[in-house]
Prior knowledge:
By secondary structure, the protein is an alpha+beta fold. The chain is 30% helix and 26% strand. An eight-stranded antiparallel beta sheet has the order 1-2-6-7-10-13-14-15, with helices on one face. Strands 3-5-4 form a three-stranded antiparallel beta sheet. α5 (142-156) runs antiparallel to α6. It starts with a strand and ends in a 10-residue tail after the last strand. The mean pLDDT is 92.
Amino acid sequence: MNTITITALGTHWWIEVFDDISTERRDGISDSITTLLSSIENRFSRFKDDSLVGTLNRERTVVTTDPDLKVLIGHGRDMYRKTKGAFNILVGDALIARGYDSNYSLIAMERAVEIGNPLTDLDYLDDTWRLSVGLLDLGGIGKGWAIDQIAELLRNEGIVEFLINGGGDMYGTSEYGKPITVYLEHPTEKDVYLGSATIENQGFAASSPHKRRWNTSRGEMSHIIDEIPDLDASFVIADDAVTADMLATIALLLPSTDFVELALAEGVQHALFSATTGRFETTSGFPFNPLE
Length: 292
């Protein structure tokens, strides 16, 4: 097994290659992944003023033919429709007001915020994106999409068996011919796991309002805006990482019945956990294994 470790997009990345490859080839693949993640960050990070997203937020327009930006915004618009506005890529101003800014100040501000509608306040014409209300934030999509881009890179390199772990969100094929085991971390208790699950040619994502939470003069804040009370963690398995990433976040935004309906329509398996009530529910197809 060859392990590649990288720090990018504000998190740590571990890529496990189970194929038998040389050290030189591993290092070359590592360089390619580093270049890919740097390109993604430099184009789409809300925290970089000169990125495409940063320029759009600052200038209200950005001229670009970048096809990946179209794809990412397309994912956001699609989920905005499907969740009736609960999943929204134009909440950047609200996150900044909570202190989740480019300096990670974690200092909340008492001011009105603008949250746009990506269907009506964001448009593309003549190679130009225009934003009229709100600030674009691709945080609920970008990491999962980046994982899928790495998976494509590895496949193009002829790598068959691998696991990509980007700060807990993953995509894996297989490990020496067997499904890959992932562990479901307890959202509020350190070094405690709820159990495990397996993935095989699938993406996995977990989300919790407790992972990024801070105290401010306005009370306790989270990177999840309007999260559902008494839901402390979601775990989602999908055919790709970007779908798992989005649905794991959406699970914290929608009432349970609405989320279950959406998850069924999207063909994903999931588990939902409430530390307050002890509720732990999984779909019938979620490959959960309790710890012995």
